[in-house]
Specification:
Blueprint lengths: L15 E9 L4 H13 L4 E5 L10 E3 L5 E5 L6 E6 L5 E6 L2 E7 L6 H16 L5 E6 L14 H13 L2 E2 L7 E3 L2 E3 L2 E5 L1 H4 L2 E6 L11 E8 L23 H10 L1 H5 L8 H19 L17 H19 L4 H35 L4 H10 L11 H11 L9 H7 L16 H9 L14 H10 L2 H13 L8 E8 L11 E6 L2 H18 L19 H16 L9 E7 L4 H4 L2 H10 L4 H11 L2 E7 L2 E7 L10 H13 L7 E6 L2 E8 L2 H21 L10 E5 L11 E2 L2 E2 L1 E2 L2 E4 L2 E4 L5 H25 L3 H16 L3 H4 L8 H21 L7 H8 L4 H12 L4 H16 L8 H6 L3 H5 L8 H8 L5 H6 L18 H7 L4 H11 L6 H10 L1 H29 L6
Parallel strand pairs: 1-2, 7-8, 15-18, 22-25
Antiparallel strand pairs: 1-14, 2-4, 3-4, 5-6, 6-7, 8-12, 9-12, 10-11, 13-14, 15-16, 17-21, 17-22, 18-19, 20-21, 23-24, 26-27
Helix pairs in contact: 2-3, 3-26, 5-7, 5-14, 7-15, 8-9, 9-24, 10-23, 12-20, 13-14, 13-16, 19-20, 19-21, 23-24, 23-26, 24-26, 26-27, 28-29, 32-37, 35-37, 36-37
């Protein structure tokens, strides 16, 4: 039997599990028998079955009338309280263990219309559930949200259903079905918000099932066990608890050591001794300002947990114990109640502060950072089992950090020597207090410290309190041209790039944690180095777009696209030229950079000798620290620039600049973003393209080899751009390896196609955004933030994926035949995310749901981002977007969302309102899609549009708001709250926008009335079904 996934076994200390097995038996008797065995071996409590064998079944087996779906309650300890099924035989549900579990099977032979109707029936049943829901089975539906490959209409309907019901898919993209070489993820698992946090271990098992479907296993944690901590490696320094940093105590300790601090860097002390003396001073002050950690940092279970909340919780427990000892004492009861209230208030306050901080970060960077912030702050990391093996760890480190020269040669040191051409020593301008304070302010307060464990907050406090000890030490190092050895130790952190098979060095990205005090010195050196790197004549090539202010991947892509478009211009295809873009991959680039090449590049840029001397000292005698077999180990570093350092990226750019300044054939240009290198060749004929490409590639390969770098020839890709309908790609070789041509090529995250239509890019962006939306939706229940903030966060994250590179491709999708298809690709995902945000019915039109949520259409957002990229102020760009959106919204030819358009005539005040969040019931009133007889009749759910409560001919949103006498009491309360004579559709939005109280009153009216209408409709369904549950 294969090993069980970590985090699922019942043997886990202090954790009780509710284990579920899922399988499609394909009507096979043997498969069913094997399933019963597997449920015993896997210790399953519940088995969700699709297409059971129509024979004898064990006790506690609950099946639909057709046997298409069944649930086997294997555990004797799991009590079944209620059972239900679909008359059509598509699904069955069981309530047990406080969960309603659905098993489903939908035949692939059913029409889309029939499938849509069956999903509607399923939706009605789930809405009637009063328990958390698990929805699982074989839907025969495809969508990027749970599998790769194309999307079908059934997949879109299932995804819309999940979005509306706030169900979250557990599938991770693994295939659950395989037949004759065809594989897909047909068996799906969805869970409610309240179950998502406890769901764990969703896995496709490798156990033989005797079916063309695989077993799926997952579990729910019934109670959390104690967190386990791995011991700190032997010899690893133990740091301080920066969350308890006491600034006054730090200042007092620094004052006590002031005399010693003033002597730092004076007398006969060298730079190394000076640095060590400064480190001792910082450690002394840190010991006085905060306690040492008792062990390694434990991951917080919730993002909002603080020491204050922990203290209040302890007080609450103590107060409760005192109350229990004296239950008749009113004073102790009041004290306990007060402690409870204080704890609840503190939690709400901290959670709100966390949300506000997250939203501020989103405001600062709406171009992709929100998703990374959410993932890094709110998603717990899984332990990398592969690296727990010391042999694997050593192999990865050896591959990532190749050995270069043991030390810099004499020639290299002469390049870095701080002397003028006539041999005289060059005067060194000391660092100033302004430079120091500017550098310390750049230290991120919450970043992890380096090997010395001194928190950044302590270094900032030291500079603010008395900068002289720091400044004296730094200037001592600057005069001697020495970067102290303790500040060159780098603690290694390996970040997985994702799923790689098999894992190896290329599957990890190394980050180096450096001492903060050393980073400050790096920052001051960089401040002096940057003007030489950015010099227009002797500095970096304009074609390097990485690690430079005011430049990004979008600029690099735009430059490449501009070159290609320039080549394709012409009156006819015959008059235009052809272009080839070759994407080059450099193996392990940053860790292989040659140090002597870096110093030679700085000398060519006429960087002052004293700075070159500091860089040379910074590079040599570096040490890599890591933990293996619970012991601290060290490895000398003899090449490369540290990833995670301050100076490293700029030093890489200086060295790599040589390849961008090679004398290449005419019509040939190189573009770089950090180590990503693109070669673009323009020529009239394919023969000329071939000759120019091979000549340029030869020169580039030679330069890389001399710089200690190497091309990954097997990863080199190319694409041919031409206006001709059919033109064979040239045969280009790199050192005997033939370059692979394709019709599409991904360059810096944007997929280029041979016609620059960007249709393929929008398809991939939509698929990726669907996956991101699914992952983010999993995090949403744990955030519990204000609904308005949740809406804003959710859409910014999805848009960061959808709109990546928009300044490049927005113009292409704004005209021509490709516009409609490209826009449709993006709009489909945007609409689905908006449906989930507003909890709207999936029949709501895209125009209406975007207006309700205040999200401009995706094509208008793409134009807005292009305008901002071209220099237009963001505020003015947003005003132009709203104007264009309003013009489209008010167009009489637009017939979609008529009811919503009647309510929200002017988009600008609605979108820019300072208050008001959406809810499931309020959205029904705003869209007209909900529990209204006219709506249900329109979609053939009932036979009449008459109001069930008053008998009026038409029961729609307008009737519910202003006319139906059944809601007179609720309507009167609403009128009193908003201060108008009558409640009507014409006054609804105006009174909602006028005040927070008005918005709240309408939301309460919607909640009260729509809840009663839903209960009445469920009762109608029960009566229609003969008294059985709907």
């Amino acid at each position: 039997m294969p090993a069980r996934p970590s985090g699922v076994t019942r043997a886990d200390r202090g954790i009780a599990m509710h284990r579920v097995l899922q399988i499609n038996l394909n009507r096979c008797r043997t498969a069913q028998e094997l399933m019963l065995r597997a449920s015993h071996e896997r210790d399953a409590d519940l088995v969700i079955v699709s297409e059971q064998y129509l024979g004898a079944t064990p006790p506690r087996w609950y099946a639909s009338p057709t046997g298409n779906a069944a649930i086997y309650v294997a555990s004797r300890h799991l009590r079944v309280t209620e059972v239900g099924n679909d008359d059509n035989g598509n699904w069955v549900w069981v309530e047990a263990g406080g969960i309603r579990t659905y098993s489903c099977y939908f035949s692939p032979n059913a029409t889309v219309a029939a499938f849509k109707g069956d999903l509607a029936d399923l939706r009605g049943s789930i809405l009637g559930a009063r328990l958390p829901v698990v929805l699982a089975g074989d839907f025969n539906a495809k969508s990027p949200e749970w599998c790769t490959g194309r999307t079908n209409r059934r997949g879109e309907l299932v995804a819309d259903l999940a979005a509306q019901l706030r169900l979250h898919v557990l599938n991770d993209g693994s295939n659950t079905f395989s037949r004759r070489g065809c594989a897909s993820a047909l068996d799906l698992t969805f869970v409610s918000d309240s179950l998502l946090a406890s769901a764990t271990g969703w896995t496709v098992l490798d156990t033989h099932s005797h079916s063309d479907h695989s077993y799926v296993e997952f579990a729910f944690r019934s109670r959390a066990g104690p967190a386990s901590r791995r011991p700190a490696p032997k010899g690893w320094p133990v740091g301080w608890n920066a969350r308890k940093f006491d600034a006054p105590a730090f200042a007092e300790a620094a004052a006590i050591g002031r005399d010693a601090a003033r002597g730092v860097g004076t007398g006969n002390m060298g730079a190394e001794e000076t640095a060590e003396s400064l480190n001792r001073l910082l450690r002394f002050a840190c010991d006085a300002a905060m306690p040492r950690r008792s062990g390694p940092v434990a991951q917080r279970g919730v993002y909002w947990w603080t020491e204050e909340i922990a203290r209040l919780r302890t007080e609450c427990v103590a107060a409760n114990r005192r109350r229990q000892r004296h239950p008749q004492c009113d004073e102790r009861h009041s004290a306990y109640k007060k402690a409870r209230n204080a704890l609840g208030f503190a939690i709400k306050k901290t959670k709100r502060a966390c949300w506000e901080e997250l939203c501020r970060t989103i405001d600062a960077d709406p171009w992709g950072m929100p998703y990374r912030i959410v993932r890094s702050r709110l998603r717990s990391a899984e332990e990398d089992v592969f690296l727990n093996d010391s042999a694997n760890l050593e192999r990865v480190i050896a591959g990532l950090f190749p050995q270069g020269r043991d030390r810099l040669t004499t020639a290299a040191w002469s390049i870095a020597e701080a002397r003028s051409d006539d041999g005289r020593a060059v005067p060194v301008e000391p660092f100033t207090r302004c430079e120091l304070l500017a550098a310390t302010k750049r230290l991120a307060p919450r970043k992890a410290p380096g090997p010395d464990c001194v928190p950044n907050a302590a270094i900032v406090a030291a500079a603010d309190f008395d900068p002289e000890p720091l400044l004296t030490a730094y200037n001592k190092c600057l005069r001697e041209g020495t970067f102290p050895t303790p500040w060159k130790r780098q603690k290694l952190v390996l970040i997985s790039k994702g799923k790689k098979s098999p894992p190896g060095p290329s599957a990890y990205r190394p980050l180096c944690m450096l001492d903060g005090v050393g980073k400050v010195m790096e920052r001051m050196i960089l401040q002096r180095l940057t003007p030489y790197l950015e010099d227009e004549e002797k500095g970096l090539s304009p074609n390097q777009y990485g690690f430079r202010p005011g430049r990004s991947t979008v600029h690099a892509i735009q430059r490449a696209v501009d070159i290609v478009r320039g080549a394709l211009k012409g009156g006819s295809a015959r008059a235009s030229k052809h272009a080839v873009l070759v994407a080059l991959d450099v193996k392990n680039a940053f860790n292989s950079a040659d140090w002597e090449r870096i110093l030679e590049a700085l000398a060519r840029m006429e960087v002052p000798p004293y700075i070159r001397r500091m860089v040379a000292s910074y590079l040599c005698n570096r040490a890599l620290m890591y933990a293996s077999d619970d012991e601290a180990r060290s490895k000398p570093v003899t090449a490369g620039v540290p990833q995670g350092s301050v100076l490293g990226p700029s030093l890489w750019n200086a060295m790599y600049d040589g390849v961008l300044k090679l004398e290449l054939p005419e019509g040939t240009e190189t573009i770089a973003f950090a180590d990503d290198l693109a070669l673009i060749v323009v020529a009239k004929t394919t023969t000329s393209l071939k000759l120019k490409c091979e000549k340029a590639l030869s020169l580039i390969g030679q330069w890389l080899s001399e710089a200690g770098l190497a091309l990954a020839k097997e990863k080199t890709e190319a694409i041919l751009f031409t206006r001709k309908r059919s033109l064979p790609a040239p045969s280009i070789r790199v050192d005997g390896h033939r370059v692979r041509f394709s019709r599409t090529l991904k360059y810096l995250g944007v997929t280029l196609d041979d016609k620059l239509s960007f249709v393929k890019h929008t398809e991939e962006a939509a698929a990726k955004a669907a996956t991101v939306a699914r992952d983010l939706a999993r995090l949403m229940p744990n955030l519990k933030g204000p609904k308005t903030s949740r809406r804003r966060l959710y859409n910014e994250v999805v848009h960061s994926v959808l709109l990546y590179g928009a300044p490049v491709w927005s113009e292409a999708v704004s005209g021509g035949r490709s516009m409609k298809k490209a826009t449709l690709n993006l709009s489909r995902i945007q609409r689905r995310s908006a449906l989930r945000v507003a909890a709207a019915y999936n029949t709501t039109s895209g125009d209406a749901i975007l207006a309700v949520t205040g999200i401009p259409p995706v094509e208008l957002l793409a134009r807005e981002r292009k305008a901002v990229h071209n220099g237009l102020a963001p505020k003015r760009a947003r005003e132009a977007t709203l104007e264009a959106w309003q013009k489209r919204w008010s167009d009489p030819a637009n017939t979609k969302g008529r009811w919503t358009r009647r309510l929200i005539e002017d988009l600008k005040p609605w979108v820019q309102r300072p208050h008001g969040g959406l809810s499931f019931h309020l959205t029904q009133l705003l869209t007209g899609h909900g529990c209204f007889a006219a709506y249900l009749h329109r979609f053939q759910k009932i036979t009449t549009s008459e109001c069930l409560h008053c008998g009026a001919d038409v029961d729609d949103a307008a009737h519910t708001i202003s006319d139906c006498p059944a809601w007179s009491e609720e309507r009167n309360r609403l009128i009193d709250a908003i201060g108008v004579p009558t409640a009507s559709p014409d006054t609804m939005v105006r009174t909602m926008l006028e005040s927070r109280e008005g918005w709240t009153a309408w939301a309460e009216f919607a909640r009260t009335v729509m809840s009663k209408k839903e209960e009445a409709d469920r009762e109608r369904q029960r009566l229609a079904a003969g008294g059985r549950p709907p």
